[in-house]
Amino acid sequence: MIDWVMIGFYTVMLLLGVWQLYRVYGFYKWDKKAKILPTAPAVIFYGGYFGVVLILTSITFMTGITNIKFGHTFYVIVGILLMLAALAIFRRGRKMSKKLKKDDSNLEVVQTYLIAFVLLFTGFLNLFK
To answer: HSE-up of 118 (CA within 13 Å, CB side)?
Structure first.
C-alpha cells in the first residue's frame, strides 16, 4: 500500500533541497560581484552540501533504500572540498589584511584566519575517516 503522507513529506524535502541549492547559487552570484563576506566560500560549501543532502536523502527514501554506507572515497572528497573552501577563505583574509590601514583593527582578519584554519583541519581529518 502506498503511504501518501511519506511521499508528500519526501517531495517537500526534495523541493526544500532544490530551493536551498537555488538560494546558494544566488548567493554565489552576489558574492562573485561583491566579495564582501570573507567566509563566503564556507557558506557556499555548507549551503550546497545541505541542499544536496536533502535531495539525496529524499530520493533515497523514496526508492526504499535503507542501508546506506558511505565509503572512504566520500570522506576524501568532502575533505578535499573543505580544504579548498579553507584556502579560498585564507586568500580572502590575506586580501583583507593588505587593505588594513595603520590604525584599523585586525580582529575581523584574525577571525577569518581562525575559521579558515578550523575548516582546513576538519578537511584534513576527513581524509582519514
So the answer is: 7
